[in-house]
UniProtKB/TrEMBL annotation:
<dbReference type="InterPro" id="IPR007306">
    <property type="entry name" value="Rit1"/>
</dbReference>
<dbReference type="GO" id="GO:0005737">
    <property type="term" value="C:cytoplasm"/>
</dbReference>
<feature type="domain" description="Rit1 DUSP-like">
    <location>
        <begin position="420"/>
        <end position="465"/>
    </location>
</feature>
<dbReference type="InterPro" id="IPR029021">
    <property type="entry name" value="Prot-tyrosine_phosphatase-like"/>
</dbReference>
<dbReference type="GO" id="GO:0019988">
    <property type="term" value="P:charged-tRNA amino acid modification"/>
</dbReference>
<feature type="domain" description="Rit1 N-terminal">
    <location>
        <begin position="17"/>
        <end position="322"/>
    </location>
</feature>
<dbReference type="InterPro" id="IPR033421">
    <property type="entry name" value="Rit1_DUSP-like"/>
</dbReference>
<protein>
    <recommendedName>
        <fullName>Rit1 N-terminal domain-containing protein</fullName>
    </recommendedName>
</protein>
<feature type="region of interest" description="Disordered">
    <location>
        <begin position="331"/>
        <end position="352"/>
    </location>
</feature>
<dbReference type="Pfam" id="PF17184">
    <property type="entry name" value="Rit1_C"/>
</dbReference>
<dbReference type="GO" id="GO:0043399">
    <property type="term" value="F:tRNA adenosine(64)-2'-O-ribosylphosphate transferase activity"/>
</dbReference>
<dbReference type="InterPro" id="IPR033449">
    <property type="entry name" value="Rit1_N"/>
</dbReference>
<dbReference type="Pfam" id="PF04179">
    <property type="entry name" value="Init_tRNA_PT"/>
</dbReference>
Length: 466
């Protein structure tokens, strides 16, 4: 028993230290410092547009020309894929902008500017996220090969000659196709075994692109040089007097800027007024730390936030977020209340400083008085809907029905056997269609029981993903 108590104490102490290191001020200070590096690199080739990879990349500069959406999961070793739902090309511009904002790398940028710079970051202690080391290189290679196939087809290459048709009739275009680089370019850190695995799938992915309905003819006419990724991190050595003019290159550069230092070790930093811990890839997973702050709000108020210091940073951000919410609400725009996980009871933690989450949940204007904090069950305002972890003991509450969204079943004894439904929703990193498949049955179940006036608990493994 004593050993268990000691283990729990060590666990709680380590969690407290980690929470303090991952504080809001540390995250925003790290982003602010990394943005200086991004700005310096962007100045080297000012004609190239700066593009943010959603969503992490958006934090690292005040202004971007556009944005794109390349997921690291598409480049994970056991999940290599070329996803046609994230082509980052203009097919139906109005539709894509409506659905995804401006998450596109328009081929128009390649034609007008001759390339682009893409900004992203990672927490993994690596120099580059998988989105940069594999997902984007796969994308550029597949696109190059599809364009080459199209040009060869138009030029009659690999086809029987008809009526005296010869390569001389196509002249320059044939020569351009023959010199078109369609090889796979990966950073040196990618193992040869993985490069071989990727290479073996490329032709299959090209066929997927060609049958997806993308207008390859238009892309081919706009893109004068093949795409090729280049990588820049904080460890990259750049001789300023030897930076080449990209106009002279025989390819269209996609310069991949990894914003953060490649370290998984917390480093103490000291500014003129405050000390703080540097967090690599701090902009990642914003739901877990940003407290409703967005990149736009951050950069519009960056001086006030950074100069507020670690002691009052949370309060400063809360005021900025609430002011913005009220501003949008008064204009009829989408302005939801921000929900923040409540902190543990005072007896659990010895230090309840600004590093702890806010102590209320805001839902329909109702404060934390409605929280069943003893059991970890959180009611949403005055509704009959609550959220909890699957570790929560259903027997200890007055819940009438349970919707289990965890991938695992739980032991649940309710009077009505039909008052329990298990919909195994996987994390989007492992199955991005899982929520889409399970949502209809989950909504029908919730609607059925809530209309009957029953109290419904929606649970998952952590109690925070519902």
């Amino acid at each position: 028993m004593a050993d268990d108590t000691a283990s729990m104490s060590i666990y709680r102490a380590s969690r407290t230290i980690k929470r303090k290191q991952n504080s809001l001020f540390n995250s925003l200070s790290s982003i602010h410092e990394d943005s200086i590096f991004v700005s310096e690199i962007a100045q080297l080739s000012q004609e190239l547009p700066l593009v943010a990879n959603m969503r992490c990349g958006l934090w690292y500069a005040k202004k971007f020309h556009s944005s794109c959406y390349f997921k690291s999961t598409d480049g994970h070793t056991n999940n290599l894929s070329f996803n046609t739902s994230r082509l980052n090309l203009i097919r139906n511009e109005k539709k894509e902008q409506k659905e995804f904002g401006s998450r596109i790398v328009s081929v128009i940028l390649f034609r007008q500017r001759g390339g682009c710079m893409i900004v992203d970051s990672t927490r993994k202690g690596k120099r580059f996220p998988d989105s940069m080391s594999k997902t984007i290189p796969i994308w550029t290679c597949v696109l190059n090969r599809a364009i080459l196939n199209y040009r060869n087809k138009m030029n009659g290459i690999n086809k029987p000659k008809e009526g005296g048709t010869s390569a001389q009739n196509c002249g320059t275009i044939v020569q351009e196709s023959l010199e078109w680089d369609s090889s796979l370019h990966l950073p040196l850190r990618v193992l040869d075994t993985e490069k071989i695995r990727i290479d073996s799938k490329l032709n299959e992915w090209v066929k997927v692109l060609e049958t997806s309905g993308v207008d390859i003819a238009s892309i081919s006419s706009l893109l004068k040089k093949p795409l090729r990724p280049l990588w820049i991190s904080q460890k990259t050595v750049i001789w300023l007097n030897e930076v080449p003019d990209y106009h002279d290159w025989d390819f269209t550069p996609i310069i991949l800027i990894s914003a953060s230092a490649s370290s998984d070790i917390y480093r103490q930093k000291t500014s003129s007024e405050f000390s703080w811990n540097y967090i690599a890839g701090a902009g990642d997973d914003e739901e877990s730390w940003a407290r409703g702050l967005t990149p736009i709000l951050f950069w519009n108020n960056v001086y006030d936030i950074i100069s507020s210091g670690p002691d009052v940073c949370n309060q400063t951000v809360a005021k900025i977020v609430e002011k913005d919410r009220v501003f949008r609400s008064q204009r009829g725009q989408n302005a939801p209340q921000v929900s923040v996980k409540p902190k543990k009871s005072a007896s659990t933690w010895s230090n309840q400083s600004q590093d702890q989450p806010l102590d209320i949940i805001v839902a329909n204007g109702i404060s934390g008085d409605l929280l069943d904090s003893d059991h970890g069950l959180y009611w949403l305002g005055l509704t009959n809907l609550a959220v909890c972890s699957t570790k929560y003991n259903i027997k200890s509450s007055n819940v009438d029905s349970v919707l289990n969204c965890d991938k695992n079943q739980i032991l649940c004894t309710l009077e009505d056997s039909e008052a329990y439904l298990h919909v195994p929703v996987m994390d989007s990193k492992f199955d991005r269609f899982s929520l889409q498949r399970n949502l209809p049955s989950a909504l029908n179940f919730a609607e059925l029981h809530l209309k009957k006036g029953k109290r419904l608990a929606v649970c998952c493994n952590s109690g925070q993903d519902q």
